[in-house]
Design goal:
Blueprint (H helix, E strand, L loop, with lengths): L3 E6 L4 H16 L3 E6 L8 H15 L1 H11 L12 H17 L3 E4 L2 H12 L6 E5 L16 E4 L2 H9 L5 E3 L6 H4 L5 H8 L7 E5 L8 H10 L3 E5 L4 H10 L3 E3 L5 H7 L2 E4 L4 H9 L3 E4 L5 H12 L3 E3 L2 H13 L1 H12 L6 H10 L5
């Protein structure tokens, strides 16, 4: 197999990057050339990095502001009146120059701004190869959808149906993209607990907050510990949060963890707050997912839609969180049903779809 794929991502949380690099790994296994580009590197004057800093600050310290921006800016748009922003045009100009020099066989996006760039280049006659969006937000907000992107690869059929209703004719549910430790776990629950020094009989709740450690994690930790659960918390790269949780003395606390699969496998339930990649990874290894006090905007919408289709549970109060955790520990049919519903999302390998795109390239 020959051809080259470029995958566009953005430094807006580890999830987008991890999907991009896992796709790259799978494509290279198939004998294809593959390159990952951070779209912020295509934006002059460091504007992309400033956007990341601004977004990160909003999510951590001014969630109400992000909620307002999300409600206004990320809503579905009239496709007939779609206009490219200056940011999209700037990045698109540089991407077009890169493509002229490198001549890829297909281009893939793992972030909504990247998808907008691809659609805009197509409308202007500057995109000669097939394009695709891997829609990693379960809610699939309006900025993910561009009718001039050839393929929208989705996590779930309900998400694909929403994407089609927003104007993308070619949306397919292929399932999440997770790395090998999650797709093919190397440990059993007992082995993972033995390696971590966790009692085999313990009722373990794993609390995660993404790579940035955003959200009300101290409160979630206190609720879990008060419920009598052995609580493990992962704070990502938020060192200040790690220190605060450690000071509570109610949980085992980790910062950035390379082997998250082991922690997930060792846990009875994972509690998260964004409906992002970590939720998909937990589902892949068979750990049920509960969402609580989600981050604003796409986080809140993601977990609500995941709850609607039954791949996870959204606990809307302290009492509901404790009740749901207890049920997942004690009621095996309830637990198995949630795990099975989540794992049914993993239908196909998106790398196969992307590889087929390269075969249809006129220069292949």
């Amino acid at each position: 197999m020959t051809g080259k794929v470029v995958t566009l991502t953005a430094g807006m949380g580890a999830g987008h990057d991890q999907v991009a690099f896992e796709l790259q790994r799978r494509l290279e296994e198939r004998g294809l050339q593959s390159e990952v580009i951070d779209v912020w590197d295509l934006v002059p004057f460091g504007l992309g990095r400033l956007i990341t800093v601004f977004y990160k600050g909003m999510v951590r310290y001014c969630p109400w502001l992000y909620e307002l921006i999300y409600a206004f800016w990320f809503r579905p748009v009239d496709q007939s009146r779609r206009r490219a922003s200056p940011l999209v045009r700037l990045a698109g100009r540089r991407l077009h120059r890169w493509m002229q020099a490198n001549r890829p066989s297909a281009v893939v996006s793992t972030f909504h701004v990247c998808s907008q760039i691809l659609g805009d280049l197509r409308r202007r006659g500057l995109m000669p190869v097939e394009t695709a969006s891997i829609v990693v937000d379960f809610a699939a907000h309006g900025l993910w959808v561009d009718p001039d992107v050839d393929h929208h690869f989705c996590l779930h059929e309900a998400q694909a149906e929403r994407v089609r209703s927003l104007g993308a004719p070619n949306a397919e549910a292929v399932g999440p993209v997770v790395r090998p430790p999650f797709a093919e776990p190397r440990l059993t629950r007992d082995q993972a607990r033995a390696e971590l020094g966790i009692d085999p009989a313990a009722r373990v709740v794993l609390i995660v907050a993404g790579s940035w450690g955003a959200g009300h994690i101290e409160r979630t930790t206190s609720i879990s510990a008060a419920g009598g659960f052995e609580t493990v918390v992962v704070t990502g790269r938020n060192e200040a949060l790690r220190r605060r949780i450690a000071t509570l003395g109610k949980a085992r606390v980790f910062g950035w963890v390379e082997d998250m699969a082991r922690l997930m496998i060792a846990s009875d339930v994972m509690v998260e707050n964004a409906g992002g990649l970590m939720a998909m990874e937990a589902m892949a290894v068979g750990t049920p997912v509960v969402s609580f006090e989600p981050i604003p905007g796409h986080g809140r919408e993601n977990v609500a839609r995941m709850d609607e289709v039954g791949v996870s549970r959204f606990a809307r109060s302290e009492g509901e969180l404790l009740e749901t955790l207890s049920r997942l520990m004690d009621e095996e049919p309830f637990r198995k049903r949630l795990i099975l519903t989540g794992q049914k999302m993993f239908r196909a390998d998106v790398a196969d779809r992307v590889a087929a795109m390269t075969e249809r390239c006129p220069t292949a």
